[in-house]
Amino acid sequence: MDARFPAFHPNPAKQGVTIETAKYDLMREAILEVLKARGPTTFMKLNLAVEEKLKGRFDGSIPWYFVTVKLDLEARGEIRRVPKSKPQMIEIV
With CB atoms counted within 10 Å of each terminal CB, which end of the chain scores lower, N or C? Predict the structure, then answer.
C-alpha cells in the first residue's frame, strides 16, 4: 500500500483529506517552484502553470490535487492568500 499524507484545511472547522504521499510531494514541489519563479500569482494562473508542469506525469485529477495541496500549504503556513487581492493572489510566506 502507498504511503499516505494528511492534507489539512486552513479552516479548522473543515476536515482535511489523506492523499498519497508521492502525489502530495509532486504537487507541492510544482506549486512552490511556480511561485518561486513567478512571485505572487493569481489562483488561476498558478493552477494553469502547475497543470502544464505536471501534464503527462501525474496520475489523477491535477485540479483536485492542486486545490487540496494548496489548501494544505496555506494551513501549514508555507503559502498564503494575499489579503484583499481580487482576483485571489497566492504567494510564498
Answer: N
Instruction: Note down the domain range covering 63.
Output: 4-92
Nearest to 71, CA basis, from 22, 20, 6, 26: 6
* Residue 28, domain CATH: 1.10.10.10
Q: Which helix H or strand E contains 4, and what residues bound it?
A: strand 4-7
**21 CB-near residues (< 8 Å, 6+ apart):** 2, 3, 4, 5
pLDDT tens digits, the chain, 93 residues: what are they?
689 999 999 999 999 999 999 999 999 999 999 999 999 999 999 999 999 999 999 999 999 999 999 999 999 999 999 999 999 999 999
The pTM for the full model equals 0.94
- Inter-residue contact 8 to 46 (CB < 8 Å): no
Q: Based on the structure, what is the number of domains in the chain? A: 1
